[in-house]
């Protein structure tokens, strides 16, 4: 009975045109955030300071005229996208497409992925509200503090290694999805196109490489008891800058995030819902 009620509520949500429009707007908001991260990475390449992650993007938004309004709109769009992902977790991917069957291991994977994305979007929305209220914090600082706490116990180190494996897995999946052009299955336009396909390949691959780097750094943080290396996306990006040809690598990463941000606008228009 409870399961039927949840499915009925999820189906009613996906039949709502306002929610579909808001969820598509959420893709555009995600695109803006990724473009801001790319902008911050370019600044890092040429000596500027900044946090190359979602908190840095939100801080950049908050510093603009009417920044608080933009942050509240950001939170609203991401919550709508999170609600759509929750509906996908309940009903299966692309729930507004009638007659689509949902079964098998791949469907289970898609449902878990949708639930995880919903958590991510809600987390960023909460951060946006905090920045709008003037209480926003750097993701890197929060991650470093949490890593330092977990490093104090054996079970905490196990949690960190599990999290690192998950992040590396997510990064690897992004790279796979980009290079295999599997992202085209999420679009209503067949075959992607001469512009959309290159954007998806570059965007997913670049983001996957950086996410994988963040996971590897978390393993290093656990092995060396150095919580600073567990700062997440920002630490991964800045580690590129410290490598040989660091400026070139940072510019390449910025181009990749720019491509992913642009692809988010493609999703806003052509995503299968």
TrEMBL record:
Span-the-membrane segments of this chain are: 25-47, 68-87, 115-133, 154-176, 249-271
Q: Which InterPro entries does the UniProt entry name for this protein? A: DUF1206 (IPR009597)
User: Does this entry carry the keyword Transmembrane?
Assistant: yes
Q: Which UniProt keywords apply?
A: Membrane, Transmembrane, Transmembrane helix
- Domain DUF1206 spans what residues? 25-91, 113-179, 202-270
Under Pfam families, the record lists: DUF1206 (PF06724)
Coiled-coil intervals: none
Q: What is this protein called?
A: DUF1206 domain-containing protein
The species this protein belongs to is Mycolicibacterium sphagni
């Amino acid at each position: 009975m409870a399961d039927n009620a949840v499915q009925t509520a999820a189906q009613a949500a996906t039949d709502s045109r306002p929610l579909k429009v808001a969820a598509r707007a959420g893709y555009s908001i995600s695109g803006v955030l990724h473009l801001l991260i790319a902008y911050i990475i370019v600044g890092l390449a040429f000596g500027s300071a900044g946090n190359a992650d979602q908190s840095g993007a939100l801080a950049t938004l908050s510093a603009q005229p009417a920044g608080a309004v933009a942050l509240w709109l950001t939170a609203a769009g991401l919550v709508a996208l999170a609600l759509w992902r929750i509906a996908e977790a309940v009903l299966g991917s692309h729930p507004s497409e009638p007659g689509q069957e949902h079964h098998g291991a791949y469907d289970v994977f898609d449902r878990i992925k949708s639930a995880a994305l919903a958590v991510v979007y809600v987390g960023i929305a909460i951060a946006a509200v905090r920045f709008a209220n003037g209480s926003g914090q750097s993701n890197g600082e929060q991650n470093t503090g949490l890593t330092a706490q977990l490093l104090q116990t054996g079970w905490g180190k196990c949690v960190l290694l599990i999290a690192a494996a998950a992040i590396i897995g997510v990064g690897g999946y992004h790279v796979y999805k980009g290079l295999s052009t599997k992202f085209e299955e999420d679009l209503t336009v067949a075959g992607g196109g001469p512009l959309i396909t290159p954007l998806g390949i570059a965007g997913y691959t670049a983001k996957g490489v950086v996410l994988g780097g963040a996971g590897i750094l978390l393993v290093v943080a656990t092995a060396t008891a150095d919580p600073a290396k567990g700062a997440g996306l920002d630490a991964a990006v800045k580690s590129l800058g410290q490598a040989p040809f660091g400026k070139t690598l940072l510019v390449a990463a910025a181009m990749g995030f720019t491509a992913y941000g642009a692809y988010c606008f493609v999703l806003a228009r052509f995503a299968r819902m």
